[in-house]
Specification:
Elements: E1 10-16, E2 20-27, E3 33-40, H1 47-57, E4 64-69, E5 77-79, E6 86-88, H2 89-96, E7 100-105, H3 106-115, E8 122-126, E9 136-141, E10 145-153, E11 156-162, H4 174-187, H5 198-211, H6 221-229, H7 233-257, E12 263-265, H8 268-273, H9 279-286, H10 293-297, E13 301-304, H11 309-316, H12 318-327
Helix pairs in contact: 1-2, 3-11, 4-5, 5-7, 6-7, 7-9
Length: 328
């Protein structure tokens, strides 16, 4: 990361999730970038409101902007899945007077970070043996549960957004079956994200209280973590179940995608939980796939420890992202 503000032509880069937005600047045709700041997304109506407010409060007047957003990107209309933002890319570009405005899925940015991750940013939790010329999978819980597939090509890598977090979750025991039934009663569908994410951790705490007949106040993920530190048994179980659900879904995605090049875990929740995230629970469920246990045990799994990985991914993947944007 550079230590000063870039002085030449630069891009504003932003990682915008359901809870927080992180912003940086990157020199064109460079891997140097400058961290600008971090804000909550809730106070802003949409992307135009956020960027124009950012401009008024700082000396930033970008003409080129690229945003990684926690939402599927289909055409011109974008809805930020967990924050209520809705906007048109082209109308936003015109309203702000931008030369270029590129919007990609946030886990595409994470995927580019994986493709160019330095060794010091990877902590192995399952050694395995990566198979050459096979896909890699990036996966991680934040407010929601994001994923991306990184596939090899002759001159490097290409990254595809996926919505693996919205696959149906398969219960593995009676306790999970009861949880899934409660989630389905609330929303009609129990996806992996309903359990294996920050919002999922809050869901688990609430549902476990219902099942066990405990009158619990609603808690967000941070409060559940604090309650677990204070030895609240429901909070402790909720974190264990969230970790198990993430492992189970990661195993399903590895089988479905053939990601024998490695699984890369990111997202803010794992880092926030720190030692409460039990890697042994994750790994046990990751490989608990019957006849394909040995297949999964051979896949290396890493924790991504790179700070602001999505901003790094936007930086190192900028040229490829711009090229793909022109093709769409």
């Amino acid at each position: 990361m550079s230590t000063g503000r870039p002085k030449s032509k630069s891009w504003l880069i932003a990682d915008i999730g359901g809870t927080r937005a992180r912003v940086g600047e990157v020199l064109e045709a460079s891997t140097e970038w400058h961290f600008v700041g971090e804000w909550e997304t809730a106070p802003f109506r949409d992307l135009a409101d956020f960027l124009s407010t950012l401009g008024r409060r700082s000396d930033i007047s970008p003409t080129h902007v690229i945003c990684a957003i926690a939402s599927p990107i289909r055409g011109d209309e974008v809805a930020l899945t967990n924050a209520g933002w809705r906007f048109s890319i082209e109308q936003t570009r015109k309203a702000l007077g931008l030369n270029e405005l590129i919007i990609i899925n946030d886990w595409v940015a994470q995927g580019w970070a994986v493709a160019h991750a330095p060794d010091h940013a990877l902590t192995p939790i399952q050694l395995g043996e990566p198979m050459p010329q096979t896909p890699k999978l990036a996966l991680g819980p934040g407010t929601g549960l994001g994923s991306a597939l990184i596939t090899p090509k002759p001159d490097g890598w290409q990254v595809f957004a996926t919505e693996g977090g919205h696959m149906s979750f398969a219960a593995n025991n009676a306790r999970e079956t009861a949880i899934v039934a409660r989630i389905q009663a609330r929303w009609g569908h129990c996806s992996g994200e309903r359990l294996a994410s920050g919002s999922g951790l809050a869901n688990l705490y609430s549902v476990l209280g219902e099942i066990d007949g405990r009158n619990l106040d609603p808690l967000d993920a941070k409060a559940v973590s604090s309650a677990a530190q204070a030895n609240d048994p429901t909070a402790i179980e909720a974190i264990r179940l969230m970790t198990a659900a993430l492992g189970s879904l990661a195993g399903d995605l590895a089988l479905a995608s053939g990601a024998r090049g490695g699984i890369y875990l990111g997202g803010g929740l794992i880092g926030a939980l720190a030692k409460q995230f039990d890697e042994s629970v994750f790994l046990e469920r990751f490989s608990a796939k019957g006849r394909f246990r040995e297949y999964l045990l051979a896949i290396p799994i890493y924790r991504m420890t790179l700070k602001n990985a999505a901003l790094y991914g936007l930086t190192v993947g900028l040229d490829a992202i711009r090229h793909q944007s022109r093709m769409n």
